[in-house]
Amino acid sequence: MRLWTASKFLLSKISYNCMNSICHAFKILYTLELCTHLCVIVEDGKVIASGRNRTNETQNATRHAEMEVIDTFLEQWREHRLSKSEVAEKFSKCKLYVTCEPCIMCAVALSFIGIKEVFYGCANDKFGGCGSVLSLHSTPKGEGFKCTGGIMATEAVSLFRSFYEQGNPNASKPHRPLAQQATQ
Amino acid sequence: MRLWTASKFLLSKISYNCMNSICHAFKILYTLELCTHLCVIVEDGKVIASGRNRTNETQNATRHAEMEVIDTFLEQWREHRLSKSEVAEKFSKCKLYVTCEPCIMCAVALSFIGIKEVFYGCANDKFGGCGSVLSLHSTPKGEGFKCTGGIMATEAVSLFRSFYEQGNPNASKPHRPLAQQATQ
């Protein structure tokens, strides 16, 4: 069910041809690793990198899904020995799809790397950097990236709510008990 | 000369007892690696981690000195198998010293990890997140971190100017010719 919801979220904006690769990426990220903060980078209609929030796992509060996918992406390109200008050109053609609006930190990071466009599900009312708290994705001079939010926002909110209601087994000190424990 | 300027910048705000360790950190970072965007994390008056801007080296525009030092710091703690709460407690006692005002992305990142206090040299008029463009280091509720800027700002500006006038040999496509090449 979760995989389906996550996939539907993405499929609303990318072509039908992407379905298989997106389902594959989300199957790994979402079903197996129990994480809702997910993103993928798409180039020419194909998912080429994926990331998930790893703040608990790494004990590093900056390791949001977007920062993870940027590093994964660049690691791939380093292996192909692309030059700096080739990397910049790559980023300028890529789109990022993420379940929740990038926070202020991630919005600036995505702007620094020169991503072409970002699509997100639900708004991030506390830290959102693409319109909710601040609008750091673009400047009056037209710099930055295009951003479209609210894609299947209801489903995205439901997905996060469901996740947090169950409790996060990866957190070192869960704020809420896991569903299974709570019913014991 | 550069080492001396960089050391003086830090020494204006931290105790004399720190001098040796700071000089050591900056000798490696600054003199040998030819980089002006530097920072150190200090715990109980002792430098415990250092970072430098690695955006050109990694071809990753998000690898600012502050992001580097956070990762270095956490790597050390992971080796010591500290828990998440122990890591959070560590950060809440640490101070960060950096040559230039943290950008918006780094200001939020430092806030996320819960650093106690930040000191910086010159302002970052284009991207500064601690007062110059936005003030993201603290909230009206008192969350975030204390921040003091303008420490030996003239020297810090001079240090950056000198660096960029010479050209950056680490950049893949230098915007300015290196001093040596320019005089040939």
TrEMBL record, chains A, B:
UniProtKB keywords: Hydrolase, Metal-binding, Zinc
Matches recorded under CDD domains: nucleoside_deaminase
Gene Ontology MF annotations: tRNA-specific adenosine-34 deaminase activity; zinc ion binding
Gene3D superfamilies xref list: Cytidine Deaminase, domain 2 (3.40.140.10)
Record's keyword annotation contains tRNA processing: no
One Pfam family, short name: dCMP_cyt_deam_1
Regions that span the bilayer: none
Domain CMP/dCMP-type deaminase: 19-141
GO biological process: tRNA wobble adenosine to inosine editing
PANTHER family membership: CYTOSINE DEAMINASE FAMILY MEMBER (PTHR11079), TRNA-SPECIFIC ADENOSINE DEAMINASE 2 (PTHR11079:SF149)
Name of the protein described by the UniProt record: tRNA-specific adenosine deaminase 2
Source organism (scientific name): Pyrus ussuriensis x Pyrus communis
